[in-house]
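User: Okay, second chain of the day. Same drill as before: sequence in, structure tokens out.
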Amino acid sequence: MLIRIVAPFCESENLQLVIKVKCSTFVLMRKLHFPRYPKPPSACPADHLPYAATADRICVAGLVILRQRPGTAKGVIFITLEDETGTINIVVWRKVYEQFRRAILSARLMRVTGHLQREAGVTHVIAREIEDISPLLDHLLTQDKAQSASDSA
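Assistant: Same drill. Structure tokens below.
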């Protein structure tokens, strides 16, 4: 019996439980109660990454807290994103960097789509597409102001 938990990109805040038993597949959907924190659409929170299988295509988003380009890494860039649930390690190969250079260098809030990799107990997302979603930060400020105004009334 193989039990595999797949966390979708959290568009609907559902968690799929896929159970395979002797060539039969059952999919159970369960509504989870996540805290109502603001998250970009189609982004999997950092604390859901352990439930995804290695090499799964995944989309993550968060604040850029670190960009590293070591001289010994042959053009590889390492980015660390942070969301409300934890940190996410991103690996950007040279070809992807050349394609998404502007977003990589200027983004404060970034959405990355790629493949999950686990090696020596460390989870990375190997980037395939990178998007600068920094304008969503301004939307969060207006949302906070509206919420604080309604709380004080």
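Helices lie at 94-99, 101-106, 135-152.

User: Thanks, on to the next one.
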